[in-house]
Amino acid sequence: MxxxxxxxxxxxxxxxxxxxxxLADISNRVARLQGLTANPTTSSYRNQVHMFQRWLREYGLPxxxxxxxxxxxxxxxxxxxxxxxxxxxxxxMGIRRWHQVEDLVDPTxxxxxxxxxxxxxxxWSMSG
Length: 128
Hints:
The protein is an all-alpha fold. Helices cover about 70% and strands about 0% of the residues. The chain has helices at about 1-15, 15-35, 40-60, 70-80, 85-100, 110-120.
């Protein structure tokens, strides 16, 4: 698929530079999304994101990124009452990866999210 976008981008580069730029952007986005589903770890992230999206919808919130760090914290606090801290880390990693794939600010880097993991005895690295 990427080569098809590359061919189209090249074909439109001279006659419509704006369209060529949009095609290049689509191609890059497709590549990032393919990276999200590439292996078992990212498959796990995807499952975590689906649970988070369901929670967002239950509260009448948009289920697309970016998601405010306050909502991420609220979700993680709620989940921390029923799951192990190590599983909660997986939830946070899925949310982190979801935002990274979309080239958005990572809400799990927020100090309040980091503090939650410290509080749970699971220090959270803000760098990954």
